[in-house]
Amino acid sequence: MTQSENLKIAQKGAYLSLIVYIILSIVKYFVGYVYDSAAVRADSLNNMTDIIVSLAVIIGLKISIKPADKNHSTLLVSFIIMFVGIQVVIENFPRIFSGAHATPNAITIYVSVISGVIMIIVFFINQKLAKRTNSSSLNSAAKDNLSDALVSIGTAIGLVFTQIGFPIVDIILATILGLLIIYTGFGIFKESIFTLSDGFNEQELDAYKNYVLEIEEVIDVQSIKGRYHGSSIFVDVTIVVESDLSLEEAHHICDKVEHHMHEKGISSVYVHPEPVSIQ
Prior knowledge:
This protein has 279 residues and is mainly α. Helix content is 69%, strand content 10%.
């Protein structure tokens, strides 16, 4: 299966997340508003930020399929998410000390549990697709799916306390969710700055170096560099080979390295051979 085909399959997982998040955010906001739960409304806003993240993933995957200028979409996404989180905290934190707290309807608990179960199912689907396509973006999206599932289930557990005489828990949960949204946005902001400055994960580079060394004819890796392009990874590597090889033989080794790296999910690989005698 080609890299382009893998990316198209990965897009299906991103679209699945997008559709589910749209539905859940609408349902939860409606339920939270009608049945008076600040925590469920905050959880719906958390899902709305996930809609933006899912769109960014889809854009990244499309860029990986069709080359384009470096995009700054995730940087904008991070600011939007942090803004939403700040608004949630500003709205709910002062209410903790207000003294009057309404008790949400028990239906909010069921909605949160169902939401959590749905997101667990989406997590398993996207995790399977991520492994099949070697998509790091979809793998990250799957982890976000699981995180959102746990948040919804945690919200449901917290809402149980509102039914036994502790309605303030609803406001506390909403505030915590607001802080979680801010934290998520800040994490995306840091990652975006790192990527836009052509930064690359050193642990990933070490892993790619080991992949290259799995080719028997490669004596050593002189240098290796990587960069991100959308959801794709481009790698430039200089390998050390025997000095007595012909140009054709050295070219064949480079082809083996490129093919091996493509199988590991690397979108584009440039391999340059150097003879061991000049090391």
